[in-house]
Amino acid sequence: MNIDIQIIKENGKPAFAVVPFNEWVEIVDHFEEMEDIAEAKAISARIASGEEETIPHEFVKKLIEKEEHPLRLWRKYRGFTLQALAELVGVTKSALSMIETGKSQPSIKRLKALADALNCDMDDLLLI
User: What is the pTM of this model?
Assistant: First the structure.
């Protein structure tokens, strides 16, 4: 990258650098690309270390296509039976089943407990 820079001095010392606008755009684009590369490397490192979770395509597809209630999908994905998850969050199996079938809505407190148990965000469990 060959940049045409004009240096403006104050009191005999460089104070400002002026570059043509199109070159400035190239510089900004370059730094944004470098930031993107650094972020991709950081994410890859977190995935490799197990710190960051990846979600299988088939699971995401089911969520997007709303094949089942998100709570049911997350419960199955995490390997919980209806009874085990109900016990973990302190509700009855029947109450949990009613949430999964859309017959009732969990309170915010219950939604938080379910999200914590399933290691996901609360909004991941909502029908939207």
Answer: 0.69
